[in-house]
Fold this protein.
Amino acid sequence: MARRCELTGKGVLAGNNVSHAHNKTRRRFLPNLCNVTLMSETLGRPLRVKVCANALRTVEHRGGIDAFLAKAKNADLSLRARRFKRQIEKAQASS
């Protein structure tokens, strides 16, 4: 499973551990990923997604997963998130 946020695309970064003697060894900076269930008001069902804590804060700030996906760029979203976005758009258009 990829260590990548499904909503923002945030992934693993690489860098150096630098000791007091200035020795450099490679390390990985992992995103703070959480498996969460977000309730979609439009679909009326929960959506299970793997998101970073930063994206979770943004979802709450924008007023829910429906509003977040409506504003998000497709390039940043994972395949599952793009499918959720299409389902939400279709449900909003029919109602």
About this structure: The longest strand covers residues 33-40. Residues 16 and 26 are 5 Å apart (CA to CA). DSSP finds three helices and four strands in the chain. Strands lie at 13-18, 24-29, 33-40, 45-52.
